[in-house]
## 1
Amino acid sequence: MRSCVLAAAVVAGVLLLAGCTRLPFAAPELTHQVVLRVPAGTADAVAKQLAHRLDVAGITERSIGTDGDRVAVSYNPPKTGGKDVEVRDDLFQAPGEFTIRPVTAVGAKATASDDCTKGAEACAVTTEEHEVLQLGPVGVGDEDLASAKAVDVQNQWGVRIDFTDGGAAALAALSGKLACEEDPALTRMAILLDGKLLAAPTVQLECGQSLSTSVEISGGFDRAKAEQNAALLGAPLPEGVQIVSSKP
């Protein structure tokens, strides 16, 4: 982008234009950089997904380049209250695997593995309140997700997740089953990102009803955390992306 400045003078009542001087547009200096090692043949795809993640996370001053199995991202963190927002490393390298699982047991009855990545048939997670939840098989996966974005509802930040038609059907089937559980402790579903618990809401529906199309996750998120979680959910990366250097 260039701007043009016209130099003008008036001589004997005649306006003379001295020409146009083109001034180069000064791009902002980018103060942060990460360099990633990516699986062979995926650099362009990873760069595209990272661009989407940075858009959702509000990181607009950035550049992304590729060279073989390396992807370099230079950027300026967004600001809030005049201060740089902390940009988490997982924004650049975490797979962004999204799953929803049913809660099948609570507390002392929970005995499953704590590996809740997608390949696990069953697993267990611990909430911030130190409650242990045993989880069943994946009911909704990242292939069912259409989009994710940060939302501010009544001054509380959260993440809104919209589903594909297939995802809406899967969510309806899972939530409809949970709504009919007789034990109130088992009417909950766990929403996970890369195997880590984001929320475990209770399905507050009558038996015969179900959820579909979208869900909202809230609780303990500030704007930056909501935006970065939404960025991870909306643009999955292949396994094996790894930061090899960063600055500052």
## 2
Amino acid sequence: MHAYLVIGHESQELEREVSNLAKSLGESSFEFSITKINEVRELTKFLKLSFDKPTVILIRNIETATEEALNAFLKTLEEPQENVKFILTATSEHKLLPTVVSRCQIIRKGGQKLEVGSWNIKSFLTTSQGEKLAFIDSIRKREDAIDFLQNLTVLLHKELLEEKSDYGSKADLLASSQKALKRINLNGNVGLQLTNFIVNFPQK
């Protein structure tokens, strides 16, 4: 494997994992940003050099890259150079192009956050419809809505794997949360998408 995607929120544990991984993979390492297409071009130019020793390219917070930049970077991942390894970090693979994720070995550190503000997402599943609506009404920022739905999706997926009954209901809820997440990522109205999601939430 020539590319590793370390998933986790910024923490000392994440930094230790990245540092230890870089030391184990290469004798030298270089850090690049690929937020914009011109930065990808700079990286591509650098990679035209010949590397005699194992070398690591570290790219942090790759989810902040534009789609244009990710598509350009994908070509680099598809044609790996000998002696070059990539370490990418992100808070969630859901924010990345699936074609990028599929070319990486995923390492999860620190787990997914289950707290959104003062709410615990696991508790959220058992609250009343009115309480759910009151909670999502407090979510104004798109990034907060995405964070909430991503962590809810992770929890639902975990519970689905452990579910021995009511499997169909949990599967429908997971599909609904993923649909809402996709629409918000495509710049859908945050309040409208969250409200529709909660209105169709199965009652206990």
## 3
Amino acid sequence: MDKNINNNKSGKTVVQPEEKEIRTSFSLSKSSGKQLGERHWYVIHTYSGFEEQVRDSLKQRVESLNLGNKIFDIIVPKEKQIEIKNGKRKVVERRIFPGYVMIDMIVDDESWFVVRNTPNVTGFIGMGIRPTPMSDDELKKVMKRVSAEEPQFDVDLRAGDLVKVTDGPLKNFEAKVIEIDESRGRVKVLISMFGRETPATLDFLQVKKV
């Protein structure tokens, strides 16, 4: 439990004097856009590599401080990706935004203070100390990636890159990437053959960046 936060016998949070001074510096009336005091999704910044630890710590604090009516969900947004390494495909789960955690909450002095003072949290995303809620469009895009059943390819290729064909009838030819289809795991290239450039569509596994 936090050093300056205690629960009295009635179950209410008791704020120590020095803590009150910190909390009163956070003015809910200065928010813009969506109103603070309403339930929204927010983003908090953490030290990289501590995202899961922050999530778990916050969940424990929510339970111990009886804040389930203000902090509803905490997630580290991740998505499935197909990683190609050493010529093999492997499905891995990766953080969409390293160093960030999403939290569904009602922001007031108490909930803000608890989140902001959780170890390894560096702050809310917003103007100064005022959290800015995620827009509906931002939230939909992130949740779509999180809930996607089909993993996406994670390949370090860009249009214009030079690659070498490693498999198939065009093996050992060098080519230039002109188009990438991540959803199908294919890449369109131009290969110099017989004095002219010939387009070809290959699987990600068939090429290697030069």
